[in-house]
Amino acid sequence: xxxxxxxxxxxxxxALIIGILLWAVVHMEDNTLPGSMTNGVKEEQISNVAVTxxxxxxxFYVQTIEPSEVIVTLSGKExxxxxxxxxxxxxxxxxxxxxxxxxIVPLTPIGFPSGVTVKISPSSAKVIIDEKSNxxxxxxxxxxxxxxxxxxxxxxxxxxxxxxxxxxxxxxESVESVRADVNVEKASSAVSNKAxxxxxxxxxxxxxxxxxxxxxxxxxVPITSPFxxxxxxxxxxxxxxxxxxxxxxxxxxxxxxxxGTQDVLNRMxxxxxPSINLSDLKEEKEYTFNLDIPLRNKATQLDPVxxxxxxxxxxxxxxxLDQIPLSIVGQNDGFDTKVVFPETGKISLAAExxxxxxxxxxxxxxxxxLDVSNLPPGKHEIAVSWNLPTFIKKSTPQEFKASxxxxxxSTDVAKR
Length: 416
Prior knowledge:
RNA Polymerase Alpha Subunit, Chain A, domain 2; c-di-AMP_regulator; YbbR; YbbR domain-containing protein
């Protein structure tokens, strides 16, 4: 062995073999690192990295980005790669210099540490940009739920009652309403709070891309007794003295809102207001009355509670209305009723009224009525009752009478 080592040729051969082995070992270690490259450089790949657009969102709207996600490949020393993987990185699409329309814009890596080579695939993205438009819309408060028994939700109030909706110009006209849903289930008093607004299109779908300013409004929903609005009917008693008539009657309230139980309101067609005795109006002038509207028929509240009435009294004119036919009411189907006096079955009336009203009245505007209800067969003298136009009266207090004859219908007529 010593002899071999003293031989210079053997030593040279051994040195050559050892050098070759060392070279092989070094290169074999490098190749055993996965994803590695020469000189200690590694490579890592990150999939599904979202593309983040940079733009003025108060003026523009990004309609589409293709692709919306990319693959990022990093290369560098292992220590630097580990640092890169935990950093707050992003892939940015800088649109600050772009306007409305379609563009292809390069992608930029942001937030990666120095010493790392970043490759983005694909390296650019196609984007469609639209301008934003504003539209002022009324606020709708949609009331849901049923208040406590016997109560009713009133008209909701929103503050502010109008807001500004911002949307891409291409769909701004699609917005149909801006509303908030408010629940008043079992509420016994006014419901007030704040509500978030949502924009809806014409098909009732939520417009997710809409910006609403302000996004939240204050609201109040009154909770009251059930109510209905019906005509206000004054109760007129008597009539002015002879020689005077009503020329006009004007009330400043024609309708009244009545609060009460629902069963009472369902039967109400009008509301009887205060009474006025026309027989007390004895002068030719305009009378003004400020009257309280009384609570009647189980009503619990009224709105308004007062009415102003102006009545103009003038000197009367008279007019003779002739050939007024006598009308029979209350006749039994099994009997015939015939007017025997006056023989013509017609009557005349001297009527009185304000000149502007009486001049327009005709005989056909007046009804002379004979009520034969519950009368047996035979001849009867009956008082005539009159149905006269408003503010027309008899010029004399005389009583009008007529005679009728009631007889049973014949059997043949009855059968037919």
